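Support reply, case 0932

Customer input (verbatim):
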Amino acid sequence: MQRSVFLKLSAMMFLQYFIWGAWFPPSFGFFGLGALGFDEWQCFGLNIAFPVSAIIAMFFGNQFVDRNFSAEKFLAFSHFVGGLALLGFGALAWKSFSTETPSPGNYWLFFICMAVHCFFYVPTISVTNSIAFSAMADPQKDFGPVRLWGTIGWIAASWPFIFILADWAKIPKFGAVGFVEWLGAALGTPLAGAALNQGKSWAFLTAGVASLLLAAFSLTLPHTPPKPMSDEKHSLAWLEAMRLLKHPFLFVLFVVTFIDATVHDGFFYFAFTYLGKVGVPSNWIQPAMSVGQIAEIGTMAFLGYVLKNLGWRYTMILGILGHTVRFSVFAFVPDPYCAVAVNILHGICYAFFFATLYILVDDVFPKDARTSAQGLFNFLILGMGPITSRFLWPALEKVYTSPDKTVDYRNLLLYPAGAGFFAAVLLLLFFHPPKSKIPESAA
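Our regenerated output:
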């Protein structure tokens, strides 16, 4: 692959996941806690905008896009519209917290902005992959280094908020004190109250600007023409995907993935608030959560070695048990240093389960069934798992919240820990992957 193409694809991936990484983690502080002043069901509506968009995209949108638009032009249009919507959401949030007494504003304006962004953003996840694969002579060799820049983009989106969410009114002017003292004050003086929530609105504004940058940059990407439908069989790819559940090993994996996706999304729901409760400064919470993505880079490097020695089943069991250990540490060791350090397990949770899942599908299914099988699991990972998570975990949190708003995290967090353990047991007892590729006639 030419160096210029590699650089363009890497920049595309960096911006694609920078956008998501900038607004998604802090969104739970807005939506899940009702910081915007909306009621429980209104917050739920904001929370499910992304997974509902994922389901629409996977069942209908992706096929329509693939067959009717050149990928780079669709990417430009989607990020332009989605970027404007995010800027609108950020501006509304900024205005809501511009006074000491926050005013919630018009819920439907917030909802429309978030829904429009998610509706246009979700299809671009697969579109960027399509552009990358089409431009590569050897995708198996080249895709990994390009996709790595997406993870770096997600991480990079978090760290500026150490300074964005600092209380600069309490920090000495640069040069007024020694550099070490100034830096210590900048790193350790977080915002609080309405000012903190107003600062969080920068997450949406930053993501919106990045989206507009990617919209412009997309027009320089390699041309990727639409793919006309080749036969009637694939006119309803989602229906073909559901038929794959006739394979017992895939049905077990479908159930386990649903549980794991619900638990995985629960980490994002709980962590943003939990880390603050155990003493992580508010301007460090987003970078603390990105420790998982940093660990993910390292874990992916030795995934092949683990798969070779442990096989599909035990590698995936380790990935799911990573959630059990992480939530158990959250429950029983409410310490800021332990809470941040245990996020290293996120790399194992992602690589050993989700990445292994995609590799398994690619390995055992014939080429014409792989896309359907991948879509089947994306339906759970990006769609139904998060939707269930954003209904289930807030409902349980409500049960374990006392009248003085204190949350009993010890007992509450044992539920996702237990769900992960149950899913691991299901894999151990009932998951028997095939030892050879499934013939086309059987798929």
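We compared this against your earlier run and they match. Two observations from our side: Residues 367-399 form the longest helix (33 residues). The chain has a mean pLDDT of 83. Please reopen the case if you see a mismatch on your end.
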